Structure formats: structure tokens, C-alpha cells
Amino acid sequence: xxxxxxxxxxxxxxxxxxxxxxxxxxxxxxxxxxxxxxxxxxxxxxxxxxxxxxxxxxxxxxxxxxxxxxxxxxxxxxxxxxxxxxxxxxxxxxxxxxxxxxxxxxxxxxxxxxxxxxxxxxxxxxxxxxxxxxxxxxxxxxxxxxxxxxxxxxxxxxxxxxxxxxxxxxxxxxxxxxxxxxxxxxxxxxxxxxxxxxxxxxxxxxxxxxxxxxxxxxxxxxxxxxxxxxxxxxxxxxxxxxxxxxxxxxxxxxxxxxxxxxxxxxxxxxxxxxxxxxxxxxxxxxxxxxxxxxxxxx
Length: 298
Hints:
- The chain is mainly alpha-helical and 298 residues long.
- The chain has one domain.
- Helix 4 packs antiparallel against helix 6.
């Protein structure tokens, strides 16, 4: 049912002509209708087990991601691909905005209690070329919780949606800039696959919108909550987003490094990363960084 409703929202947003005014009007109508679905899902949190709500949210977001490029080979300059990806991403962001402002979002994620210390375990010496595969068992720095869905399930899902949309949009802009630079160097004319200025502005606006949601709604809103201002609680709140921000930032290194240092999207993304490095649990950050050094992962 959830997947069918999500597909119906995409069809409604894609209906009408390709004109800018008509396209925006149909997208706005689809966003308004999506509120009924989101109100239903938010209402379920107080009625059913969180694992059931998690299954519905995953189905909802997954079908929207598939709708961006259902065949898997959509061209960037294809008008239908651009419009479909814009509609799907806007609907995803709208869902993030509604879910991120729930007053009980921290409680739903089962924030774990950290001891503040990192286990001292002797491991095989590592070098830049040979990394140790031995894992550090996090038993003495984290309380053991056997729950489903897992801890941080909702916060990580919402953060990954925001950062994935931002990185995908920025990657489209970078690829277009590379094509234009290559065409200018070769002295060729603009091709049909190149993006128009209005399309680039819309993609840039979408990237800025998504990273703003990540910082303002997921990080700033929770970190400035008057209920979580002690050192212990602020660390537990930062842990809700530590893994997702670190993983997405590592995956987006090539994109962030190509952006101008004064670019607002890059600036806000780095603010999210600096917050995690400063406020996140030391043990969790170290564990994630060790995981990035694993040859299988790298």
C-alpha cells in the first residue's frame, strides 16, 4: 500500500506539461497530498511497534529512490529524467522535514549510554600499506541493547536521505561543469545533453535545501534542545547521527574537494562533520575511523 501511494505521488507530480509553472504546480499538489500519508505514518508511532513503522518508512523511501532512475541508465540531460529526479527528491525531502520535527525523535532512536572511555586493546601493528583486521569489541564503552529496530534507525535514515540527495545533486552539477569545460576546450557547440541554466539552478537549490535540512532540522534542532544540554546527554544525541555523517562524508570526499571553498553547500556539510567530530562519542568515532582503514572497506 505504501509503495503504491508513493508511486501515485510520483505520477501526480509528473503529470501535466513540461512547462516550469505547470510542473511546479503539480509537484506542489503532490507534496500536499503526501502529507496525508506522512500523517498516517507519524500517527502509527504511538499505536504499533517501531519496527513496523520502520518497515513502512523503508518501503516509502526505497520506492522513491527507485523512481529517480528506474531503468538505471537515465541521462543527465534527459528532460524526463531531470523532472522525475527532482520530483522524487523533493518528496523525499518533504518526508524528512515532517519526520525530523517530531518531538520524540530522539526517544524513538534508543539513544545509547556511553562511558566516555575507549577500550585499550592491543592489536597487531598497522602501517599505511598493511592495516590490521582485528576488531575492537565495544563491550566496555557502550551499554548492550538488544532491540529491533536497531538504535539510531530513524535518525540515520533521515540523515542519509538528506546527504544522499545533496551529494547526488552536487555530482550532477560537477559532471555538467566538466562537460562544458571539455566542450569549451575543444571548441564545440553546446549539445542536447547539456543542462540549461534553469536546470542547474534548480539542482543547486535542491542540494542547498537538502543540506540545510540535515543541519537545521536534524543537528541544530536536537543539539539546541533544552532537554539535552548536559555533557552526557549532548554526547548521546550526537551519537544519533555520528555514523551516517561520517560514512556519507567519506563517500562524498571527491565531490566536496571539487567544490569552491566559499560554496554554501560545502560550508554547511563541513559544519555537520565538525559537529560530529566535536560532540560525538569518542569511542564511536574511533570505531568508525578504524572501519574505514579496513582493506575490505577501502
